[in-house]
Specification:
By secondary structure, the chain is of the alpha/beta class. Helices cover about 50% and strands about 10% of the residues. The protein starts with 16 loop residues before the first helix and ends with a helix. This is TniB protein.
Length: about 290
């Protein structure tokens, strides 16, 4: 019986182990509620009429919880449908100050960095010319918390820049990162009034979590159902992952690979235990760390 699998996964049961392992390791999109809400909010920003004060969006939550995949998926879907690229993803660089922030945007817009990119007036002028030429409707700043680790005056300058490009170039900024991003934006009512927020929280142990496990299991070419969404398997995966979707996917992936390598037809509680998976919060004090001393 293959009722536990997606129709597209069933043929892989006849494939060799290497093919099945490659499929399991490949990235997969999971359209869970927070991801769908974020995509809808970004779609509305992209389709909005012109405005002198365009709104922005905050996408905030814990690390390793799927935020980058959400925005990258949205940007890719936009490119597939659009005649002209209007959504650009900026990887915010580590380092304080406007110079690093400008450099992040130049790199994200695939512009060459001039030798004098640390010259702020020159970099600002270059960016204005680029924005005027490209006419983006949305700039998505991933890992935006990286820009908040400098002096308060640097953070204020960055927010002032975001307000200016919104007003002068009709750009909606999307700020993606940890909860510190939400705190920084709402440090003043004026800045907080410009952004809507889509939280990406850790997963609770509930029906949505069970649906997530079922969707993961349906994409894994194992001939027998593992029952990942049932007790005690679901409880074990939730505890090991601490509710982080990146960890959930990693645990299930490792368990599936272990099952295939051992010639097993499904993931079992024994498979999970054999992984010796250490939750994120315990890794600093993990037993294997002592072996390094």
């Amino acid at each position: 019986m293959t009722d536990h699998l997606l129709a597209a996964t069933v043929p892989l049961l006849q494939a060799d182990a290497a093919t099945r392992i490659a499929h399991i390791r490949s990235p997969r999109w999971i359209g869970y509620p927070a991801a769908q809400s974020a995509h809808e909010a970004m779609r509305q920003l992209l389709e909005r009429p012109k405005s002198l004060r365009p709104r922005g969006l905050l996408l905030t939550g814990a690390y390793h919880n799927g935020k980058t995949m959400i925005i990258e998926r949205f940007a890719i879907e936009h490119l597939r449908k659009a005649d002209r690229q209007q959504v650009w993803v900026i990887q915010t660089r580590e380092g304080a100050g406007m110079a690093h922030f400008y450099a992040s945007i130049l790199a994200g817009l695939r512009a060459p960095e001039a030798a004098g990119w640390r010259n702020l007036p020159r970099a600002s002028e270059q960016l204005d010319h680029l924005l005027e030429a490209l006419q983006p409707r949305m700039l998505i700043f991933d890992e935006f918390h990286s820009a908040l680790r400098g002096r308060q005056q640097d953070v204020k300058a960055i927010f002032s820049f975001l307000r200016r490009i919104a007003r002068e170039h009709d750009i909606s900024p999307v700020l993606v990162g940890e909860v510190a991003v939400y705190d920084a934006v709402h440090d003043t009512e004026e800045m907080g009034s410009r952004f809507d927020t889509i939280p990406v929280p850790r997963w609770s142990y509930d029906e949505d979590f069970a649906v997530l496990l079922d969707s993961l299991e349906a994409s894994i070419p194992l001939p027998e159902p593992s029952g990942l969404s049932r007790e005690p398997m679901a409880r074990a995966i939730h505890g090991l992952s601490e509710g982080l979707i990146g960890e959930i996917v990693e645990i299930v992936t490792r368990a599936a690979l272990a099952a295939i390598s051992c010639g097993e037809k499904k993931i079992t509680a024994r498979t999970l235990k054999a992984l010796r998976y250490v939750p994120v919060s315990q890794r600093r004090n993990a037993a294997f760390r002592e072996e390094m001393m």
